[in-house]
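To the wet lab folks,

You asked to see what we're planning to order before we commit. Fair enough. Below is the target structure as C-alpha cells, and below that is the sequence we designed to fit it. If anything looks off to you, flag it before the synthesis order goes out.
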C-alpha cells in the first residue's frame, strides 16, 4: 500500500524538489513582471496552479509521502485562439521549473508538440521522437516499427525515470492514436 510505496521512495533517496525554493520563487515571480510581455491574469492563474501542485509535491517528498496525497494528479488543458499567449505561458512554466526547482529539461519535465515547427516554437521535442511513436502513411506505419511493435522500454524508462511534468503544446493537432501510443509508452516505462 501507501506505506510500502513511501518506504521504497525513502530508500531510493530520490529528491526531485530542492529545498529553499521560496526565495527562488519570489525572484522568479519578480522577473516575470519584468518580461517584455508580462503574464496577464489568466496566465498567472495557470502559473499559480502549477506552483501550488509543485509545493504540494515538495511537502509530500519532505514527509516521505510521495504520491500518497488524496489530491488527483494535475491534468490541465489550456485552450485559446492563436495569439493569446499559450506559447508564452509554456515558456513561463519552463522558466518556473528551471529557476524555482532547478529542474533540467528532459529530466524532470518535457515539452512536446505534434510537429517539428510547433515543437521548435516552444523549445520542445516532437511527440513522435520523444515518445517513440511510429509515423503512419496511408495506414502503413513507417519509421522502422509497426504501431503494434514493442517500444524499447529501456530507453523510455530512462526518459521517464524522473519526469514529473509533461506539457503537450497544440495538443489539438495530435491524433488520438498518437496520444494513445504516447500514453501507453509512458505508462509501460513507468511500471
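Sequence we intend to order:
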Amino acid at each position: 500500500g501507501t506505506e510500502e510505496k513511501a518506504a521504497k521512495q525513502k530508500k531510493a533517496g530520490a529528491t526531485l524538489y530542492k529545498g529553499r525554493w521560496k526565495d527562488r520563487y519570489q525572484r522568479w515571480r519578480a522577473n516575470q513582471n519584468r518580461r517584455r510581455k508580462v503574464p496577464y491574469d489568466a496566465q498567472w492563474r495557470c502559473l499559480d496552479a502549477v506552483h501550488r501542485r509543485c509545493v504540494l509535491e515538495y511537502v509530500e517528498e519532505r514527509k516521505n509521502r510521495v504520491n500518497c496525497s488524496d489530491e488527483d494528479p494535475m491534468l490541465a488543458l489550456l485552450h485559446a485562439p492563436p495569439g493569446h499567449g499559450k506559447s508564452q505561458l509554456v515558456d513561463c512554466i519552463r522558466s518556473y521549473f528551471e529557476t524555482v526547482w532547478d529542474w533540467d529539461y528532459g529530466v524532470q519535465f518535457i515539452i512536446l508538440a505534434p510537429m517539428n515547427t510547433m515543437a521548435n516554437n516552444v523549445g520542445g521535442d516532437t511527440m513522435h521522437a520523444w515518445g517513440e511513436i511510429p509515423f503512419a502513411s496511408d495506414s502503413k506505419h513507417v519509421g522502422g516499427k509497426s504501431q503494434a511493435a514493442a517500444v524499447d522500454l529501456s530507453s523510455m524508462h530512462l526518459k521517464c525515470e524522473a519526469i514529473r511534468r509533461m506539457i503537450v503544446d497544440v495538443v489539438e493537432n495530435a491524433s488520438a492514436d498518437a496520444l494513445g501510443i504516447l500514453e501507453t509508452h509512458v505508462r509501460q516505462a513507468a511500471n
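Structural context that might help your review: The chain has a mean pLDDT of 84. The chain is about 50% helix and 10% strand.

Thanks,
Computational group
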